[in-house]
Amino acid sequence: MTAAVLDAPPVTSAALTFDAPDAIWGVGSAPVAGGLVHYPLSNRDVMADVDWAEGQLRALGVEAGSLVDLVHNYSECGQFWPYYLAGMRLGAQVMNGMATPWDVGRIEMYTRRFPLRAVLGVSPQTVEGMAVFGFDAAKVFAAVPVVGARGAAASALQAMKLRPRRMTLLGPLILIAGPDEEAAAYDTAEWILETDGEGRILVTSGPKRAARYDRVDTGFRGQVADGGVKLEAGT
Amino acid sequence: MLDDASDPSDAMTLNPSGNSVAYQRENVAKWSDRPFLDAVETASRAEIEALQEKKLLEQLAWVAERSAVVREVWSAAGVDPLSITSLEDFKARAPFMDKDTLRDFRDRHDDPFGGVLCVDRAEIHNIGSSSGTTGDPTLFAERWNRPYEGPFTPREYWHLGLRPGDYVLELSTVLRGVAHRITRAAGAIPLMLNHDPNEVEQAVEWILKYRPTIFFMLSSPVIYGLERLEREKGIDMVDLFSSFKACIYGGEPIGPRMQRTMDRWGVKVFEFSSLGDSGTIWECQAKDGFHAWEDIAIVEVLEPGSDRHVADGEGGELVVTAIHNKTDPLIRYRSGDFVRYTKAPCACGREHVRLWLAGRLGDEVIVDGVSILPRDIWTAVEEVPETAAALFQIIRPQRELTELKLRVGYDGEPDLDDVARRVADQVEGRIKVRPHVELIPNSELIKLGPPHKIPRVAKA
CA of B172: which chain A residue's CA is closest? Predict the structure, then answer.
């Protein structure tokens, strides 16, 4: 069962203030320790996240003319949508695939037909699906300069001699850590991350955000310091 | 109406919803208490056809210069696109293309878009694709600053009752772009969840909290998940669906048993389907056929394998020409879909062509001379309680077969030999062909395809 982060539905005055910063853009969901929570994002939230995502993508070498494949499920639009707009702001073209076993054919197709700069969001289900549907993940991703893989997918790709970035959906945040980096940066202007006495990473939303996260346990353990998060292995 | 904005910077700038600022401003200006969003929706046949002819001639000039596959196909046919003088002239002389044309061009020229791309790649925002259940996925290039080039438009939602500020429950996939762009263009707020029968419990919770107006989208796997939830948790489905003005169903036809289930739940269901890879067609409030927007595409219905048009009310192959899409338009594209059509006025007040779906050419099998489509055996599979979700596939290594083989999903832990016999009895009773039935659990069958539909034919 999910817990609402939003106490009440937002005021539905969108007809008059559609593109106003405070108007609700949509309701997404985020995995936390207690299961999935649903939370609103305002137009302002989206654009703030686009600003952050733009910096992340630029650091991965995404530029005008780059091709970026975002691998995510629909419930993860709240986290991934800013990466679409950020890619487009940089002049990149964006494509997408789902983080499910059956959709690996599309991911493979994009890598075969296009010189992709980045595939971001590869999931354990993706790697599993590649094996089930007869694709060699090592070959599929060999020519892609930047592969962002989540959880066990990162370890699996490393075992195939690839060097994926480690991506994590830390509740409503996306973290991307380089292959040799212990910590991943996060947007300190929008989120407050901290740990409790047992090392659990808690997330609190910034005052301007529509959602009210208040020290919500993300389900991950680790350390938070200097705008970076170092996740404990296995969490 | 669908023109580019006069201010080029507003036309190019995307808002937080991924739509151009100019388009959104134009859309907001349309919002009122009127039943239709765009004036062209209620145009007369004469007005529609005059508009089509104008847009067609513009489109032919556009593709003659820019579409590599159009140049190749028309050159081979000895027809100059610029020599076409009218709608009738086009229907008499224009050559056809189909999926194989695009695949062949793609492979010969190493062009992922099959030669249809008419703009510089730098102008593209998003590259989506079909699910690829019948081969390498078909690509769709989208310029998000160009309204009404995507899979559907805000018109459909508006007519079905969505108004700015409403919530749309989106149990969706990430295939061709993202549905929430259209929801936002319509001024509504998307509630974004996965299209997954195993996650419908979360959808139930969101419905009860937000009471959305539109459900996008229902499918046989999702209804299967909801039925299971009703059985196991005793959810009041009538209450659950009470806030929805429209529940959009897509992916494949609705079987009679599933229709009865939705009737029992009081679901106001409206179906949609593909318009030959040039958009989608939707049922309207009158629920008497699927409307195609003829200011966006020219619709023809031809005898399969020929260039003869069938009469109004008759069935044939759907052939589509995109006249609004300037990014990757398909011109006289044979879709492989069997449809019946009419241009008679609809009770909803619109005269845009209406279509009724009969099936896909590629889904047909011939067993000992008998033509069989998935919908021919749908009801039979639904009639057996253990297979009532109608999750099944026809095994089709080739079109002509000596034996009909079915892979059928089942629920629970039944006596499999008994279930297979009863399914075979039901099928034989309806189509006079006794199938060989392979049974696998529904949960396994669902994994074989995209979450909104089961691939109804499989090679093995």
Answer: A74
| CA dihedral angle for residue B425, residue B431, residue B436, residue B442, rounded to 10 degrees | -80
Nearest to B410 by CA among B381, B436, B430: B381
Contact residues, chain B, for A129 at CB < 8 Å: none
Q: Is A207 exposed, middle or buried (0-12, 13-18, 19+ CB in 10 A)?
A: exposed
Q: Which amino acid is at B376?
A: D
User: What pLDDT digit, counting tens, does each position of B199-226 carry?
Assistant: 899 999 999 999 999 999 998 889 989 9
The pLDDT of residue B130 is above 60: yes
Shortest CA gap B351–chain A (Å): 29
Residue A3 falls inside a structural domain: no
Residue whose token pair is 């969001």: A121
Helices B45-66, B68-77: axis angle to 10 degrees equals: 100
Alpha carbon distance B382, B417 (integer Å): 17
In chain A, the number of structural domains is 1
Q: At what angle do helices B200-210 and B220-233 cross, to 10 degrees?
A: 80
A102 and chain B in contact, CB less than 8 A? yes
For chain B, positions 307-326, list CB contacts with chain A under 8 A. Answer: none
CB-CB under 8 Å, B189 with A10? yes
Above 70 in pLDDT, residue A14?
no
B192/A77 CB distance under 8 A: yes
Domain at B364-458, CATH homologous superfamily? ANL, C-terminal domain (3.30.300.30)
Average pLDDT over residues B261-289: 95
| CATH number of the CATH domain containing A184 | 3.40.50.12780
What ipTM is given for this predicted complex? 0.94
The whole-model pTM stands at 0.92
Residue of A nearest to B13 (CA): A89
State the best of B158, B189, B235 to mutate against chain A, taking most chain A CBs within 10 Å: B189
